[in-house]
Specification:
By secondary structure, the chain is α/β, with parallel strands linked by helices. It is built from 24 helices and 18 strands. The strands form three sheets. A seven-stranded mixed β-sheet has the order 3-2-1-4-7-6-5. The radius of gyration is 30 Å and the shape is elongated. The N and C termini lie far apart (about 75 Å). Bound molecules: zinc ion (ZN). Zinc ion binds next to loops.
Length: about 675
């Protein structure tokens, strides 16, 4: 492991800046800490709210990610108020959290790490703690005692596994202060603690010990097949993705039975090595490496047993059986270890392994699924390292229960804000680069959806997706070029959605085009083009949607953007009105055919949405202005005056209607048509 400390870079830094520097140096090393794991602290003189000097402990806030550390992520705690706790014999988790909260020097700062006391009880100025993979490979196995002794001798003290909290903090301090004068403490099934009189010293010792462990493991792993021989047929990358796309919606429906989830597919080399190996299933059935890993991936992944991963029917039925037995075993494990009054969480897996194909991780959103994937890949590395030295072992079933059902974590869940209306859902929008489609993509993303933005204009779609990513975070949107008249392109986009998220829940079929001209003079090519885009385009999108939603078996909602011209056609809009009428009739037949699967099909009929619209080209505006004998600048005003509410209809108004049809608020409505036109008497249904 590389030592990233550069003395010149810390010249003139105060204690807190050095702590930030140390934390970042550790945080960028994925083999040390991942996604909020690990923590660091420094003890430094500071002032309390009265301006009186106090000894402060700056400690990483709970949940913040080390690689993105800033000063504000390290709340200061009054060290002299914390230290008397060391004399106690016991302290409950709740009592500890409450006590620490009262010692905060700034009550509005982030909540200090749950491992605050571990840092406080060590007398050293700076403390660094990680869940380094190499250290876990050493501690998690039959070889732990011997290997640690051979490697570190008296340099480190060992502390037996115990869930983080008051007692662990006390035991670490007692081990650190023993007569043997260790330079670090290794916590079994948990990680490493080092310290120093400077941040650099704490860091250097940490890097030195982890590097030593890494080298030791590498030597022992040389020439060994740590997961056993490769047994399963390993498909070629392209074939793996085809299989993954084909079966993902089935899996998504099964593991999202209680609560919808987003899937993330991963067929990286380390995953393929594990899932193809003869001992893979047995090894990953031993359990996650630490309580921290358990919280992200659960104790066990789900292994899908198949002989031939290319036999899709076999894979799907194997998935069905695997999910059923996973949930049953989870239930049994929960019942065997449960504490009084605790409710069982979702019994479905966070990690799914399919030999020959790869891994899916699940989460309430793409980022959570990604985190679980990153953590499981490190779990694979830890297992491999342990196998190189001996036999991988980890937390007992009871310890794993106590980690997953840790009251403090359960309490955190109750504090989580209420989920947004389209949270956990994936929405695909056609014609999403501008106008109504873009407004819908934005509205849905604001309500928590992951959005597949598609458009003939690939660049425009990409811009919208980038905007959503910047606003709502990683993994919340992808962009795909899609010509709705091309069967191959439509199906490729759905394949991308299956791979990116495991499926879709909502599809807005919005892409369309306007054709103007009296029927007597309209060239047949223009008529055909209108039918291609406004009728066949919706047919192709609907066909893929229905197939996917039926595989997923979770119901779903499809929204068709029609037009006021369907109930109230206008002169010179023959091709447009007739092709859009075909779209609407298609939607109704789809409603009839798919109601029994819980798939809803509804139609929105907007009128005169000018702003930001590609449909209203300059040509079309001029033609319509001429037809109504008004100047082109007055066109929007003309349409406004035409409706009962005298309202300017915007793309955002249409997006509100789309959100209603997409969400469960319209759960009992299908085959319906909703106008968003300011009120047009001609367009009233009759
Ligand atoms: Zn820890």
């Amino acid at each position: 492991m590389q030592n990233r400390w550069v003395d010149d870079e810390v010249v003139g830094m105060d204690d807190l800046d050095q702590l930030v520097y140390l934390s970042r140096a550790m945080g960028v090393e994925a083999n040390l800490v991942l996604w909020g794991g690990g923590n660091t602290s420094i003890k430094s003189e500071t002032l309390d709210f009265r301006g009186q000097p106090v000894r402060g402990l700056y400690i990483k806030g709970s949940g913040s990610d080390m690689k993105e550390s800033e000063r504000r992520h390290f709340p200061a705690v009054d060290l002299d108020a914390l230290l008397p706790l060391f004399e106690r014999d016991a302290l409950s988790d709740e009592g500890m959290v409450d006590y620490i909260r009262r010692c905060m020097l700034d009550p509005s700062a982030p909540r200090p790490s749950i491992e605050t006391l571990l840092h406080a009880f060590l007398p050293h100025k700076c403390v660094a703690h990680s869940h380094a993979d190499a250290i876990l490979s050493l501690t998690n196995g039959t070889h732990a005692g011997e290997a640690l002794d051979a490697l570190f001798g008296r340099d480190v003290a060992l502390v037996a596994y115990r869930r983080p909290g008051f007692l662990l903090a006390k035991e670490v301090a007692q081990a650190a202060l023993s007569n043997l004068r260790p330079r670090g403490v290794v916590l079994l099934n948990h990680g490493l603690v080092t310290w120093g009189s400077t941040a650099k010293q704490a860091y250097d010792t940490h890097v030195e010990m982890v590097s030593k462990a890494e080298e030791f493991i590498a030597e022992r792993a040389a020439g060994k097949t740590v997961f056993g021989v490769q047994r399963a047929k390993r498909l070629e990358p392209e074939r793996r993705r085809q299989v993954a796309a084909a079966v993902a919606p089935t899996l998504r429906g099964l593991v999202g039975y209680r609560q919808r989830v987003v899937l993330r597919f991963d067929d990286s080399a380390e995953v393929m090595d594990l899932v193809g190996a003869s001992d893979g299933k047995e090894l990953c059935g031993i359990g996650a490496a630490t309580p921290d890993h358990t919280l992200h991936t659960k104790r066990l992944p789900m292994w899908v047993d198949v002989d031939d991963p290319e036999d899709l029917a076999e894979v799907k039925s194997a998935m069905y059986l695997a999910v059923e037995s996973y949930a049953n075993e989870y239930r049994e494990w929960f019942e065997a270890h449960r504490a009084a009054g605790v409710e069982m969480l979702d019994p479905y897996p966070r990690v799914v392994l399919l030999p020959g194909v790869g891994m899916w991780t699940t989460g309430r959103d793409g980022a959570v699924a990604r985190t679980a994937g990153d953590i499981y890949r490190h779990t694979i590395g830890i297992i491999g390292g342990a196998q190189a030295m001996g036999e991988y072992r980890t937390l007992t079933a009871q310890d794993a229960y106590d980690a997953e059902y840790w009251p403090l974590e359960l309490y955190k869940l109750t504090l989580a804000p209420r989920e947004k209306e389209l949270a956990r859902r994936v929405a695909l929008v056609t014609g999403g680069a501008s106008g109504i489609g873009r407004a819908i993509a934005r509205r849905f993303a604001a309500e928590g959806a992951h959005v597949v933005v598609t458009d003939l204009d690939a660049k425009g779609a990409d811009q919208v997706a980038q905007e959503l990513l910047a606003e709502y975070g990683r993994d919340r949107a992808i962009a795909c070029r899609m010509d709705v008249t091309s069967e191959a392109e439509v199906s490729e986009v759905f394949r991308q959605a299956r791979l990116a998220y495991g499926g879709v829940d909502v599809v807005v079929s919005n892409a369309g085009m306007a054709t103007v001209g009296l029927i007597e003079s309209l060239p047949v090519e223009e008529w055909r083009r209108a039918l291609e885009v406004n009728a066949t385009g919706h047919f192709l999108v609907a066909k893929e949607t229905v197939r996917l939603l039926r595989e997923q078996d979770t119901g779903g909602s499809m929204v068709f953007v029609g037009t006021k011209n369907v109930p109230a056609p206008g002169k010179e809009f023959g091709a447009y009105s007739a092709s859009k009428a075909a779209e609407v009739q298609l939607a109704r037949v789809l409603a009839v055919e798919n109601g029994e699967y819980g798939i809803r099909m509804n139609i929105i009929n907007p009128d005169a949405v000018f702003r930001d619209s590609k449909l209203w080209s300059d040509d079309l505006r001029e033609q319509r202005a001429a037809a109504h004998s008004i100047p082109v600048e007055s066109l929007e005003e003309f349409y406004r005056q035409r409706n009962l509410l005298q309202a300017v209809v915007t793309a955002e108004d249409v997006a509100e209607a789309a959100l209603f049809f997409a969400s469960d608020r319209s759960a009992k409505t299908t085959g319906a048509m909703m106008p968003v036109d300011g009120g047009l008497r001609d367009a009233f249904p009759r």
